[in-house]
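#struct-help
A.M.: can someone run this one for me? Single chain, 493 residues.
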Amino acid sequence: MTDFIDIIEALGAYPGIEDASTFGSYVKGRNVYKDSLLLADGILFMVNKTDPFTKELVAITDEPHLLAGLATNTSIHTGKHMMARCPMNVANAYWFMARYKNLGPKSMKDHPVSVGLGDRLGLVTPGHVASVRKTSAFPVFAQQSIRELNLTGRTFKDVLADAFWGAFRAGWREGFGADGDHLKTEEEVKYALDSGFSMITLDCSNHIGSERIGGVRAKPLSIKAGGTYKLTDGTVMAFSDNEIRNYTAIYQNAIEFTSAIYHDLLVGCGRKVDFELSIDETGTPTDPKAHYFVAKQLVDEGVPLTSLAPRFIGEFQKGIDYIGDIARFREDFVLHQAIADTFGYKLSVHSGSDKFSIYPSVAELSKGRFHLKTAGTNWLEALRVVMSANPELFAQMYSYAKEHLDEAKAYYKVDVDKAYVPDAIGIGSFDRPNVRQMMHITYGLLLSAKTAAGEPLFRTRLYRCLRENEDLLGRTVEGHIDNHLKALGLIKS
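D.P.: on it. Structure tokens below:
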């Protein structure tokens, strides 16, 4: 952070402030985040840290009417200028994104590589910015599922606002993606769209394998038995009568549901929205022929996908590396990639954090065109900071997580057994797979735990610790995401 007066004097692009010292004392001196400075439309914006736990937006202008609609706490006038101190809340984030559309959510369609960087706490976007700005990858800073919203007690607007303010404070001015992740119903999709999200990830797991209803959009199948279908890499696919009956029974209801969501909600929503289809939440890997069957039907129904997430061969468990045969993964990926290339969308790798052993294959075989989703790994890095800065708090959270592990396993598929989790760990044990998986999936229970009096058991102390150590948090998250991006070849070592 930098002294406010030094900033004003050095800026040069904002002349005529007669009494910078008055403004300087008003923002309490050396508390300004230098990277946050933005001069736009006659307004100088910056983020000021008033204490270890509170930040505010500062706006200076000689045309106060330009700030109409921006909620302010206090304001002063000196000479012809006004300075307003404004809360960094949801309403003001949406004011900003409406006025300066280039700073908020936008489509990733023009970017070959994109990375989803979910933040369950609303605190780690500055670390994401520090890492992503070393690459040409498009960042999706706001990424959250309904399950995550419910487990963390947040809303889509909270998620988007937190991502916006984190990016703004870190000086990110290029826009970012906002992904309503794993949405399963029409109501959930509407919720994300109404909240301003730029990406919808439709999870069709509730419709895969369900009985086909056959609504108004039901059409004859465009894939015929005995026909041959050539992919861009020269691979030829042919389908038997039995295969078509099988794929129809499993996927056709999901296809028609996807088509209805696209045509009824995304078409005409008034902005460019990325549409990802998730068919990875299944018990078995996605057969490449099934992938082709789904994609071809959607294309024929006029549904353009930005990306599609099949379930790849192997295990993509939470917070740990890929489990499986990498040679088989590569063979499987090549076929899925050829289908994606044929229809013009990216493959999306879900539960993609910490899968370091397959990142080189993803980068190579996709020819540098893919989407990768990470989320819980950022929560784990926050816990790493807590372990370092407040070992007592971490020990209490760890003990609670182990006690409630079986409850958390209802939400996530992981191979972690309480009997094999140690009762306590040191810094050197944090990266043990069973420890990472346990702490990964218990985030909702830890954030919502209450004392007998109904007060938060951990949440308040957790946020206090992370805010007091925000520089360490930023560096820790940056370093961890750097490791992902290096393994993907996006940051050169």
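A.M.: thanks! The radius of gyration is 24 Å.
D.P.: also worth noting: The first helix runs from residue 4 to 11.
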